[in-house]
Amino acid sequence: GSRAAASLAALVVSVTAETIDTHVDELGRLDQIAGDGDHGIGMQRGARAARAAAESAADRGAGAGTVLVHAADAWSDRAGGTSGALWGVILRSIGETIGDEDRPDAKSVAAGVAAASRGVMAYGKAEVGDKTMVDALVPFSAELTRGVETGEPLSAAWAGAADAATRAAAATADLLPRMGRARPHAEKSLGTPDPGAHSLALIATAIGTLLAD
Ligand code: ADP
Ligand code: MG
Ligand code: MG
């Protein structure tokens, strides 16, 4: 029922915050190479605020979609930075798509991730190949949709999509940045993956492990 879905939504946000806590220094170092070094701390601030908002919404009896929308607003309010606004777009898109009614099925989760992918591209104007989180999010969404459409359960489709995101994030090392703060330092960033693509892949992988349990 909707209670279980809301608890799972809050757990997903909590796992996201734990993942960022574990990798905060690594993300800061990655962003130091061609950016301003704040990707770890910004993601940590956003994800922790999102976790608190998600837990309190779930405690008040909100449904899964509303839990994610509250998490989205807290993340973008508290994180600062480009990635904070974009993670707000991601969580809000998924929350609005799955809604509160019932236990969200795999198709609506995949549709929510597809909406998130379109929303991030509309908000940030980056396309695949610009060396941003879009380079991980687009293949993640495509693989999740493909898996769900072939009838895989959500946990299996998500795991395959997280692997695709991980490979795609690693492959951004070969790209020159065309968006965001890294653009003026394009050559310096060659050989290093995009921080936002890397953090997205870490989060997707951790949620995949949660869904498999
Ligand atoms: P800021 O760049 O404001 O310091 P962060 O360091 O938290 O914010 O996030 C940087 C990440 O944000 C980049 O690695 C990239 O993945 C992502 N990013 C930056 N600009 C865009 C954009 N226009 N569209 C999508 N993602 C972007
Ligand atoms: Mg930064
Ligand atoms: Mg910054």
TrEMBL record:
Residues 7-209 form the DhaL domain. It comes from the Bacteria. This is Dihydroxyacetone kinase family protein. It comes from Microbacterium deminutum. The lineage of its organism: Bacteria, Bacillati, Actinomycetota, Actinomycetes, Micrococcales. The chain holds residues 360 to 572 of 578 of the full protein.
